[in-house]
Amino acid sequence: MKVHFDIIHSIKAAFGGLPKKMNLQPPLPNNELDRLNALHQYQILDTSPEKVFDDFTFLAAQICRTPIAIISLLDGNRQWFKSKVGVTVPETNRDIAFCAYTILHPKPLVVRNALTDSRFATNPLVLSDPNIRFYAGAPLLTPEGFGIGTLCVIDVVPRDLSLEQVEALRVLSSQVMAQLELRRNAITLSRTIIQRQQTAEQLRGQYDFIETFYRQGEEKARKGDYQGAIADFNEFLRLNPHGFKAYYDRGLARQKLGDYKGAMVDFDMYLRFNPNDVEARYNRGLLRFELGDYKGAIADYSDAMHINPDYAIPNEVRLIYSELDKKEAIVEHTHYLEPNSKDIDADIADININQNHNHSRLEDNSSKIEDSTQFLPLISNNTEVYVSLDDAQYQPENGTQSLQLSPDNAKSYMIRGNARRELEDYSGAIEDYTQSLKINPHDAQAYISRGNARFLRKDYTGAIDDYTQSLRINPNNAKTYTSRGNAYCELEDYSAAIEDYTQSLELSSNNAEAYINRANARSRLKDYSGAIEDYTHFLQLNPNDAKAYISRGNARSKLKDYSGAIEDYKRVWSKAIEQLPKLSSENS
Q: Has this prediction a pTM greater than 0.70?
């Protein structure tokens, strides 16, 4: 009877009843606390049955031919069954769990006969219901290597598994673990999303709170309470130092109160963040004018005009600026020539010398040089890039006389610059165009002319700068985009050149020069398809250009379109044959 009593106590202990009388208990893993922490991350304990896990226990029982299969998870003092086949109890005490041994090693544990195994011979689950004799379990291993449970199969008779069955059990345990990982990842992702939503909500609340000060400042400024507005803008900027819009509004409020220096500081800060705000530059110009910084005022007005030509320097500012600081203003900003200065006398002397020089060089020419378009080859090897230069009329006597009588005349410098360029005195031409631009810094044509002279002097970077300045003043000049593209080609910046040629063609779709130049640039970048398209457009406008046919043929050959290439070469040959009779008659 004593033995029977001990067995009853052991069975009750197995299912949460009285403590059992056993000395052998499974050892704890060395990393038990970390293992338990990993288990709880999956939040799987005490959850409802799920088909995906029930499918795994069903497959395990079928593959191993056992009446019992269990997915067990080992908590601190129990083993809990997530899924089970052949048993009804939801859990057992951990100290009688076979699975408590399985989690100690990464490989499956197989117990062929529990009665002959010293670890399990006196286990109440062996000595009574369910009378376990055979056990095989594969550990559920987390990516960190913690054994949190098992997928096990149980039979009531001693037996063994084939190697294939053991491997199948291991594979199924890996799939169970994969499902648990998906669960943990979903939990982590959900937690992250919730945290981000909470953070975003907090930030929105903070932003709304901070923005309240700005809106209050705006409202007070509209009502004329500039002191109150400044106080609100101060608080807004304290909480949000990068809220640059408040610098401008605070500057306006300070300006209204006569605090011009404080307003200047705010305008300066605002324009660091937003340098292209035309209105802010214009207002800072007015403020500088009030403070007597006339040069700074003109600089701000000029910048505003570059960004938006609708903004102009007020006439009263020009007048007072000129009257109060005439000499410095002339040198630094308007660049008007002073007839009584030594520099002007020297300049006039230089003009007289150049006049004599020009007459000697042009004594066989008429006083008027006709406008012409000059095409210069930029790239060899059957790839031609053409440059258009805007030439101007030259009247040496009238131009020089104008310089002598009115040295502040920008047009006269332009005329003399054009003449010098005709004489290939590009350095002198550049000097004259520069003088003209000092007088009139918003003359787009002067920038183009100086850019052309710099191009001929092979100062391609300087030419690009001038073409860019011209385009800021007149962004719709297709020829200037073409000229700048040519300069980029000379610097082998073909990508930038293509952008300019494309812009030119958007403004003037029949610009043959832009097509041929873009085609050549595309060829340099090995964009042969794009090049062929451009050569085709060019040939539609210039159907007799032999070099374009050759270039298109070369591009087609690169794409292995040999039939198309031969067709282009044949056209060139046909054109050459057509010219033979004409050449023969001319030679005879």
A: no
